[in-house]
Amino acid sequence: MKSSPKLLVDSFLGQEHIALAGYSHSSKKFGHTVYQTLKEKGYVIHPVNPCGGTAPGGEVVHQDLDSLPPEVEALLIITRPGVTERLVDQAAERGVRILWIQQMSGSKAVRDKLEEKGLDAVYNRCILLHANPTGIHKLHQSILKLFGRLPLKA
């Protein structure tokens, strides 16, 4: 059953533990910025990057989805579409309840994979516009809301 975009956004943002596939150790990369921003907003973020290591706060950077703690039921994907497609498969196998496919991380093949696996996802939206936005993201959210481009109805 397909959920409304608003319900999907609210459900995802209501999760206590969120995995972030596409975390970057480089502070100049978007995956790092999203990690830092969501942490600052109070989310418990579990970074995922095949290189492993540790994040700035000392958190373990998981090398794959299989190494995530069992309480993680939400996955934010910020990767190239080919990688995203594989992550959707892995998420389905692991039983991840809800996915967020960041803008530019999806493709027709990713959409087909979501359909095949019977998974709902927030798709092609910027998480920073929805997770208690500030600065330029708050302005962008206001503009989208004004023109009816935000998922506001359940």
- Cα-to-Cα separation, first versus last residue: 14 Å
* CATH T-level fold name: Rossmann fold
- In terms of DSSP E residues, the strand content is 15-25%
The H-and-E topology, N to C, reads as HEHEEHEHEH
Q: Helix count?
A: 5
The total tally of domains equals 1
The gyration radius over C-alpha positions equals: 15 Å
Categorize the overall geometry.
Answer: globular
How many DSSP-defined strands? 5
CATH superfamily: NAD(P)-binding Rossmann-like Domain
The main β sheet shows up as: 5 strands, parallel
Which class of secondary structure composition applies to the elements? alpha/beta
What secondary-structure arrangement, pairings included, does this model have?
Blueprint: H1 5-13, E1 17-21, H2 30-40, E2 44-48, E3 74-77, H3 81-94, E4 98-102, H4 108-117, E5 121-125, H5 135-146
Parallel strand pairs: 1-2, 1-3, 3-4, 4-5
Helix pairs in contact: 3-4
Salient structural properties:
single chain, 154 residues, alpha/beta, Rossmann fold, 5-stranded parallel sheet, 5 helices, 5 strands, 36% helix, 16% strand
Structure characterization notes:
The chain has 154 residues and is of the alpha/beta class. It has one domain: NAD(P)-binding Rossmann-like Domain (Rossmann fold, 3-Layer(aba) Sandwich), CATH 3.40.50. It is built from 5 helices and 5 strands. The chain has helices at residues 5-13, 30-40, 81-94, 108-117, 135-146; strands at residues 17-21, 44-48, 74-77, 98-102, 121-125. The protein has a 5-stranded parallel beta sheet, with helices on both faces. Helix 4 (108-117) links the parallel strand 4 and strand 5. Helix 3 runs parallel beside helix 4. The radius of gyration is 15 Å and the shape is globular. It starts with a helix and ends in an 8-residue tail after the last helix.
